[in-house]
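Structure tokens please, single chain.
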Amino acid sequence: MKEKIQGKYLYRGMCQVVLTIVSTVIFYIHWNNYIRIHHELKLLSSRSNMLMAILIYAALFVIVGKWLHAFKIGVERKTNLIASQFLTAALVDVLEVFVSVAITANIRMFWQFTYMYFLMFFLHMAVLILIVVPMIDIYRKAFPPLKVVEVNGNRNNDIYSKMNSVPYKYQVERVVRFDIAEDELKEILGKYDAALIGDMPSDDKNRILKICFDMDKRVYFVPKISDVIVKGSEELNLFDTPLFLARNMGMKWWQIIIKRFFDIVLSLIALVLLSPVMIITAIAIKMEDGGPVFYKQERCTIDCKKFMILKFRSMIVDAEKDGKPHPAGENDDRITKVGHVIRGCRIDELPQLINILKGEMSIIGPRPERVEHVEKYTREIPEFSFRSKVKGGLSGMAQVYGKYNTTALDKLKLDLMYITNYSLLLDLQIIFETVKILTQKESTEGFSDERVKEMHDAK
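Here you go.
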């Protein structure tokens, strides 16, 4: 097992080296040709300057690539990896424009460098896609999925089917009860590569974790809310007893100010750039049935404050005329023709940029829920109110890593991971991850008929 894991890491490391070298060679060719054409930059053609430019580009590619998961060959889906490569190449090329201006000390070259890197980006992407896809195929043939045994807890969940939905990575072959005898459990664990621990009492989970640690077995387990909170804690070494410090204070005052500044700047830029799309959408909605363009709905944000969220209308007029919540189902006939298009592309969410400008929402944060849903979920899961420690967002952890129909408990855990580990860098990462999921159909799947009925009965 150890040899197999080490082999995976070695292969991924080799892939990272190859991708970095290929990307750097593409940069070198463009940079060198550019210097030859522009005679005023001949000083940059010296070996030392050329080596510095190459090293800066390679370092940026590795740092940004790791940050955006561009080197997780065999871990991420093909579409996710291609999207990561796309974003990595784009962000590095943008950064290189400013680096090149700094190296040349000539701000007048800004637009020329922009044009050069813009052309380089398309070649870069074409080459990376041609390399990355075969790398993934080779990985999947060389390293078969892990054989997993699930130690089932006393609470039902669908983690079994979720693990098996990634067949190139996991194969859950057996399920056993958590109260199985220890000797028998050890014998079973010895036949598998990893253990999947379901939702069970903490004492039993801790016991099984220790057994797996003793046997050098990889463990996947469903975290409890307390596990998520502890994950964001800080290690303290003041004396001979280990301590974890969970500050539980939310964002610092300076983080709130900077976050608000970026919310205003980015939402203004987005409104200007996306105004043609928003105008065309508004016209299309009006032309289809003559109804209102926008749809307002009461939602909850920080400290459970209520506000009216703004969306492009994607359903028929009076879709909820009985006053009860009717979340969209998988094949909901209330969705208009235009609605199907704008929901699939997330265009219906764009008017919320106005909510962000008004200070009612942030670009990144837990998704604001309907008042009825907050009341229902809080009755079932008292900790659901923890989400209101920060301002609601246009996108967030639950939107990036979950789905439209992800359960309330799983959404809560994802949002708590954001709240307890908050940083401005995390906000930026979620923005890039949001771009990656825009084309994933499963992230916009509607609720099942059972969930729709459940939410309809929320009041």
